[in-house]
Specification:
Layout lengths: L7 H22 L15 E2 L10 H13 L9 H21 L6 E4 L2 H16 L6 E5 L4 H12 L3 E5 L9 H7 L4 E5 L13 H10 L3 E5 L11 H4 L3 E5 L10 E5 L25 H39 L3 E3 L10 E6 L4 H10 L2 E2 L5 H6 L4 H5 L4 H4 L2 E5 L6 H20 L2
Parallel strand pairs: 1-11, 3-4, 3-5, 5-6, 6-7
Antiparallel strand pairs: 2-8, 7-8, 9-10, 10-12
Helix pairs in contact: 1-10, 2-9, 3-9, 4-5, 9-14, 10-14
This protein binds pyridoxal-5'-phosphate.
Pyridoxal-5'-phosphate binds next to helix 4.
Length: 423
């Protein structure tokens, strides 16, 4: 059968884009001074820290210095190599400290995606011969996990997704119902990137271990933001990404508990104790190490500060804009994240209007917002389509100030009113 020239999903994307453009044109011509890029009080505000964070200047300096001076290959025996290896060792110690693990348990990767791939594929391949061919994960995982599972399903593994409730949390009961001794790995993220809900990892990992099953957590959104102690959580594998805590992009790590066997999915040299072939990206890893150290040092103060700013933003929006609701708001959440739906608003139109006013937010994960597909996270929570399409994520970070929250609270209510009027 011939496939239609334009698929349903493409048609949906075109419609949303067209609507956004029309709404923005109307807003432009209706002459609101608040939507004037050249206005004198224009200030740029970045509230998309769950997509990525700005590089810390001290980290940028350390990366630049390593790029210039520390060019040796860490596998080389001479002094250039030993100097590069010492830099890797320091970074490994800093990353291990952030995880509460041992340096030898840290595998450097090219980021969170590769760490997730290595954890899931590595463990699945290592356990296949033992007849453990089932893989379990939550329905709200990042694409790095979901797409990896899909590829493994294609290769013969059975993949089952655990549901979340209306508050965006995986219930241990749902895991208890399906877990058996034929499962190789359970993967549940520590906190969700779109709504910020923190999952009951300790309980879920305990359940997995009762059946001799390995437990992986994607900690890309929690490492460097809230305590992420792998021993306290009781997990076997945990992934992080440097660019989520003011480190460079293209650097990440997998913590793998000593004794957990992983099959390397890259073939080549014996780097990273045979778990990840390829010469390490020394400058980026130096940046990751320093970013991990700085994040760990500010963990105790930054969490409460961001939570207070986030709560003020949330309360301000809910009280000044009619028809708003927080998605996942009643669950334990990351201190920096709020996901709010705005009745009778197309999220993309609001996102673009806010951007024109210098305020950067998101409609979900950076990846899924790029495709304009409805969020799989909000869908899994059972929210109605209208609410999903009207949801905006605000994610705060180290640079976020009181003045910025004031500005958002001044700009947002009239903007939403205007968008509703021109609808
Ligand atoms: N996992 C989660 C929860 C994320 O939010 C992200 C990034 O958006 C990733 C994995 C992927 O990390 P990276 O961009 O370093 O590949």
């Amino acid at each position: 059968m011939r496939s239609p020239a334009v698929s349903r999903s493409e048609f949906y994307q075109y419609t949303v884009l067209l609507t956004c453009c029309l709404v923005l044109l109307l807003l432009r011509f209706s002459g609101d001074a608040m939507i004037n890029v050249s206005s004198s009080h224009f200030m740029r505000i970045y509230l998309d820290h769950n997509a990525t964070t700005p590089l810390d200047p001290a980290v940028a300096a350390a990366v630049a210095s390593a790029l210039g001076e520390n060019f040796g290959n860490p596998s080389s025996i001479h002094q250039y190599g030993q100097r590069a290896k010492a830099a890797l060792d320091d970074a490994r110690t800093d990353v291990a400290a952030l995880f509460g693990g041992e340096p030898s348990e840290v595998v450097f990767t090219s980021g969170g995606t590769e760490a997730d791939n290595l954890a899931i594929r590595g463990a699945a391949l290592a356990l296949a011969a033992a007849g453990r061919r089932r893989l379990l994960a939550s329905a709200i995982e990042h694409e790095a996990v979901l797409a990896t599972l899909k590829a493994l399903e294609h290769d013969g593994w059975t993949v089952e997704l655990l549901p979340v409730d209306a508050t965006g949390v995986v219930s241990p009961e749902s895991l208890r119902r399906v877990i058996r001794g034929d499962v190789a790995l359970v993967s549940v993220m520590h906190a969700n990137n779109e709504i910020g809900t923190v999952q009951p990892i300790g309980e879920l990992a305990r359940l997995a271990h009762e059946h001799g099953v390995l437990f992986h957590t994607d900690a890309a959104q929690t490492a460097g933001r809230i305590p992420c102690d792998v021993r306290a959580l009781g997990v076997d594998l945990a992934s992080l990404s440097a660019h989520k805590f003011n480190g460079p992009k293209g650097a990440g790590a997998l913590w793998a508990r000593r004794g957990v066997r992983l099959v390397s999915h890259q073939t080549g040299g014996r780097q990273e104790r045979g778990r990840r072939a390829g010469t390490e990206n020394v400058p980026a890893i130096v940046g990751l190490g320093l970013a991990a150290r700085l994040a760990r040092a500010r963990l105790a103060s930054e969490g409460p500060r961001l939570a207070a700013l986030r709560d003020r933003l949330e309360a301000g929006v809910l009280s000044s804009v009619r028809g708003t609701a927080v998605n996942g708001g009643s669950s334990p959440r990351l201190p920096n994240t709020t996901n709010i739906s705005f009745d009778r608003i197309e999220a993309e139109a609001l996102l673009i209007a806010l951007d024109l006013d210098g305020i950067a937010v998101s409609t979900g994960s950076a990846c899924s917002s790029g495709t304009l597909e409805p969020s799989h996270v909000l869908t899994a929570m059972g929210l109605p389509g209208r609410r999903i399409q009207s949801s905006i994520r605000f994610s705060l970070g180290t640079g976020t100030t009181d003045a910025e929250i004031d500005r958002v609270l001044a700009v947002l209510p009239p903007l939403v009113e205007r968008l509703r009027r021109v609808r």
